[in-house]
Amino acid sequence: MDRFIVDPVEFAAQAERWIGDRIHLVLESSRRCYLMLAGGSTPLPIYQRLAMRKDIPWSRIDLFFGDERCVPVNTSENNYTMVMRSLFPDGDRPDGMNVYRMCGEENPDKAAEVYELVLPERIDILLLGVGDDGHTASIFPGSAALDEEKRRVMPAIAAKPPLQRLTITPPVIQSARYLLVMVQGEGKADAVRRALVDRSVPAAIALDGDWMMDTQAARALPEDQRLGF
Question: DSSP secondary structure string, the chain?
Answer without folding.
Answer: --EEEE-GGGHHHHHHHHHHHHHHHHHHH-SSEEEEE--SSTTHHHHHHHHH-SS--GGGEEEEESEEESS-TTSTT-HHHHHHHHH-TTS-PPTT-EE----TTS-HHHHHHHHHHHS-SS-SEEEEE--TTS-BTTB-TT-GGGG-SS-SEEEEE-SSSS-EEEEE-HHHHHH-SEEEEEE-SGGGHHHHHIIIII--SGGGGGTTSEEEEETTTTTTS-GGG--B-
